[in-house]
Amino acid sequence: MNAAVCSSVSSTTSIVVVAWFPWSPVVLSADAGHSSWEVIHKDMYLSNTLPFQGQLYGFLQTSRQIVQVYPPKLLGPGPVVAHVPIKFGNPFFCSYYLVESDGHMLLVVKSMNLVGRDVEEWRRYVIVIFKVDVSLGHWELIPVSSLGDRALFVSMDRCLSVKAKNLPSISSNSIYLTVPLPDPVVMHSLSSQSFEWPTTLCQVHDVKEKIHPSVRPFTIADHLLTYCNHREWATGLMFHEYYTIPKSYEELWKKIRAQDSEVRISRVQDSIRKGKRSVELKKE
Known about the structure:
The protein has a domain at 1-82. The chain starts with a strand and ends with a strand. Strand 1 and strand 2 form a beta hairpin. Helix content is 11%, strand content 37%. The protein has helices at residues 220-227, 230-235, 250-260, 268-273, and strands at residues 2-7, 15-20, 27-31, 36-41, 46-52, 55-60, 65-70, 80-83, 94-101, 104-112, 125-133, 140-144, 150-153, 160-163, 174-178, 185-189, 194-196, 263-264, 278-280, 282-283. It has 4 helices and 20 strands. It is mainly β. This is KIB1-4 beta-propeller domain-containing protein. Residues 5-183 form the KIB1-4 beta-propeller domain.
């Protein structure tokens, strides 16, 4: 389950918790002090999301659409507020990240770069940044060529913007991101348009059972990127070491599954079928 805190539409001095689920189209909300949840969306599969200025925005899975999740748009053209340009190709082969940076909403697009086999696989990406501007009353994507002293850490779970001058070893005007490779951490410099590995491959295991010692001390980038990846952060693991976990780590998998199953909203489907707008949160 994922959740975010937003400003309540029912009270200017209250908050609301919005919850959604991986690979489920249901989105719930509950005002502070209320004992039940309200179903606000029944057909919204979300990927990356961003709480911004008291509201919640996100991407529909395998689409180019940015939607307003909360407050729900009951009138007008619907929840879609912006589209990623079609020139980046099929969204199935792209990754989109929303991140708040210096008071602005930024959109980071990562798409495949169809270059020759002589280019290493972890360098075969195109990274583009847009500022999402709503000042004119409509959404507009404005290209961003520089982040200045900022550095972005992006993942599907959480994105982060930091000032590089306050954090030794963090490169300014850069994006730290993940790629689906054995060494998953890559840094992209907007200044040079280059890709670098900010850390040496140091997973504490191979794909089977062989164990390697953890490489310490961890860098600031290691900690920040782990914070952006919820599974590793919630279980006390470093992302760059435990990006993949062998099946032989039975006790670790048991711990992860136990944490994932602590809270279940078991009555959501029944409530939707019956046309109800509220459900109870049941802990099992």
